[in-house]
Amino acid sequence: MSTFPTPRRGARLALAAAVAVTAALTGPVSYATSPGPADGEPTPGAPGLGDPMFPLDGNGGYRVDRYLLDFDWQAPRTPFAAKATIKATATQHLSRFNLDFGGNTLHAVTVDGKAATTSREGDELTVTPAAPLAKGRPFTAEVTYTADPTQVRHRDDAIETYGWIPTPDGTVVYPQPNGARLIFPANDHPSRRAPITFRITTPKDLTAVANGKLVGKSAGPGDRVRWTYDSEQPLSTQLVQLAVGRFTLVDGEGPRGLPLRDVVPDALVEPTAKYRKLTPDHLAWLEEKLGPYPFNRYGVLVGDTDLGVALETQTLSLVPKADLLGTQVDAERNLVHELAHQWFGDSVALASWSDLWVSEGHARFYERMYSEQHGGDSFEATMKAAYRAHDQWRRDFGAPAEPTEPNLFKRMRYDGSALVLYALREKVGDATFRKIERSWVTRYRGKAASTRDYIDLATRVAGADGKDIAGFLEPWLYGPTTPPMPGHPDWVVDPAT
């Protein structure tokens, strides 16, 4: 995610204590599967994964194998019939399980075709099947509801507004950080990934799009059309995209024949064409740095909204129209930023929200590097400015890998985290840094990975000198003050006042 214009360790312990209190009140809350008792009696799945930022996000006791989403879209800001079919596997002997589900009007839930008992509190939908689910057993939960495309939530950081975002003739969705639950019931945490099938019915004069590949389009009664998309690869719920409107689909080709598909409101096709046509060049530039693009296709969805936030929704980045109607330098910054996320944050997912610096820091790092080479500001100058402000950001927003929830998407996770990568490159040299980067996106492709994973990998790749890398990175990522910048003894940090 991009837009332009925390605690120390003690605070982290306080957050952990809060999670423990939550666990005591609501049941087991842990990143691990909740174990059953020795006698094999079924137990509830955890109602949250215990992430320090959002303790009740995600759920325990099962693994989602696929979502099938059916939406009968009617008109902007108009409720419509919806159904989510969740194919899953129990990871413990399960008496009940939770889904993250906010707002919307619930009608019924079945498990393997039998009516289930439900209760709702906040964003937690608790489902009790007619009979317990044995560990290792596949099951299918079906949730029917009325979706409300007016639902949005707000944050006081770079996210601004998220959920269903209306356009003049339809919608786009901003699910980051945890707004997917406003769209469909889910295991809503970035570390939990599953493929998705979208089946969206619209009036015949509208087009529906979603992540992945269009695998079916058929006419239905009442001058309606059913659009079916397959995400092809698993994705995190925060990366879901589903849009409806009067769109033109513009096909193209990237490096090695990669299919490209831009989704553009009809009136914006020509005005945005110049910058959208740069995507093959952006792909080639990033592939030279990082290796092959990690998915089967890519494209840009032009958002006809006033929301000034771009988003790395998987294989179909959402870029506001304003970004594509301004200067080329600014347009390319956002286009490269969201494309870089396809490697960092999409292909390699976040293990926890505290790892957001890995995703946003890398996207900003490559955005800044590309921009300098194509008419933008000096990369070194922007990093020097970030270095000067870094102690202030640490005090106000938390160290790069120690955010607090209200400050999760503040400046530290962007330029402040790119600065960590800049410092690492200065420490190990460009050749070793490139090896670290390629090893990261290769080793963890299709997986979730953590800050600890990045530190350990950087240490291994750095080879004989690697023994110093952990000791170098940890103060940058967790320390209360900003370490010296290698190679730049003249750089100074303004005191946090």
Polypeptide structure, described:
The chain has 497 residues and is an alpha+beta fold. Among the domains are: 59-245, Sandwich (Immunoglobulin-like); 349-478, Neutral Protease Domain 2 (Neutral Protease, domain 2). 29% of the residues lie in helices and 27% in strands. The protein is built from 11 helices and 25 strands. The strands form 8 sheets. Strands 6-5-9-3-2-14-17-16 form an 8-stranded mixed β-sheet, with no helix packed on it. It has a 4-stranded mixed β-sheet with strand order 1-4-8-7, with no helix packed on it. It is globular and about 70 Å long. The relative contact order is 0.10. Keywords: Aminopeptidase, Hydrolase, Metal-binding, Metalloprotease, Protease, Signal, Zinc. One of its GO terms (biological process) is proteolysis. GO terms for molecular function: alanyl aminopeptidase activity; metalloaminopeptidase activity; peptide binding; zinc ion binding.
Shape: globular
Strand content: 25-35%
Strand runs, count: 25
What structural class do the secondary elements suggest? Answer: alpha+beta
Determine Rg (CA atoms, Å): 23 Å
Mean pLDDT: 92
Q: CATH fold name of the domain at 59-245, please?
A: Immunoglobulin-like
Residues in helices, as a percent range: 25-40%
What is the CATH architecture assignment of the domain at 59-245? Sandwich
CATH class of the domain at 59-245: Mainly Beta
